[in-house]
Adenylyl cyclase-associated protein
Amino acid sequence: SKENSSFPFRRFKVTFPQTFCTSPHNNKYSPDLLYPNFILFLEIERERGGHRHSPRVLMDEKLIQRLESAVSRLEALSVGGGASLGDGEAAAALDPSIIAFDDLRSQFVGRVCTAAEKIGGQVLDVTKIVEEAFEAQRELLIKIKETQKPSMSGLAEFLKPLNDVIVKGTKMTEGRRSDFFNHLKAAVDSLTALAWIAYTGKDCGMSMPIAHVEESWQMAEFYNNKVLVEFRNKDANHVEWAKALKEIYLPGLRDYVKSHYPLGPVWSATGKVAVSAPPKAPSPSRPMPPPPPPASLFSSESPQASSSRPKKGMSAVFDEINLGMPVTGGLRKVTDDMKTKNRADRTGVISAGEKERRVSSPSFSKAGPPKLELQMGRKWVVENQIGRKNLVIDDCDAKQSVYIFGCKDSVLQIQGKVNNITIDKCTKMGVVFSDVVAACEVVNCNGVEVQCQGSAPTISVDNTTGCQLYLSKDSLETSITTAKSSEINVLVPGAGADSDWGEHALPQQFSHVYKNGQFVTTPVSHSGG
């Protein structure tokens, strides 16, 4: 009945250590100290009307997987891990919430890994990072049960293992654009959902855990939908991968957080104290500038030290003089065609062609500084953002408007209902919004993508080349108006939950026929013969 006693199910071949079933007070065998997963098994068997010695064929497949997973953990603790883990950590590893998290990993993360193995390459690499991030979160969940709630600086150090994995994934999306860029962005952006573990209260600056998981997936879904659209008729493995990735978070992680941590992680009241990293001692010879702040769980941008920027202007010239460098060494020789005085080809008469070229040159040659600010409490202004993939407006209301101007290769997410949205003179810009009271306007743009996750009465596209509109089920009755625009595609969700998106190209050529005293206009469709 002690260390050498085996569990009645001989097929599992597991031996319990004495500490698992022995009371520390009287050193007697106590069956009440069995781990919760086996007590749960006995309760399920009684509810099924069976006996605890029922044959294995009567058990559900999921129940078998849970029991085998639990037995593997027990064997690891009893054979090798029991000596390295304390009693508290061993109990925490077999807590019902940790067991449920293991079920989440095996069911949902395992499915996306299986799909990634069929694809290989960068898709498999980024999927392994997703798997590594969930493994890091599991270790943090175990430590939380043995650790007191830390300070903000201590929390940043505590979450560093998870943060390091997210930063490693972010680096995969940088540099030269990959053929599987949408896969990489969908997987990496989804990892911000794991930051729910950093929730410390309503004043911490982030949404509640359940809402945070849902909001984080909305950003990743923008790229995940592009994978579904691109490969729906090409490769079923990519479609399976995208669907499996979504199910990790919705419903997987969301339901897990809802069941076990709806108000955030529960720290131990009597556990050990999380210690923040000690500050580094300054150099005695020359004080060094402070290091850049660590990358955040909520941002995919890597901070750069200001000292890495090259000096400009006269300060750079003086530095070269102090170093003894020849200031004129990098100058080029001025040839005759580069001179402005006494040139042979200068006649003083400006040709008509040159005059036209001068007039047609744009007056806004230099872009202004980037902006993302609320002006007068009524208007959000987003201007001159280039290469920013994680722009977010989360503090907005139905009386405010959003104006986006001069942005390029960026993605903006608007979390909340606003009055209207205007996208003006943007290139390769992505905008994801929830609800609009009046209208969403796209003007003078090139290659933009707009996704409506809620409702929008009107979407207008004017003088735009290339526009992808993603509509939700609540916005299928949206009125879409186009003028002087081309390459307008509208994607709508399928009838079923697992159905593919349907793509519809809006007509850009029309036929006008005069009949019965008025013109009748119909769109022109072309069919290949």
User: Anything to note?
Assistant: The longest strand covers residues 408-424. Residues 10-94 form one domain. The mean pLDDT is 75. The chain has three domains: 10-94, 99-260, 371-523.
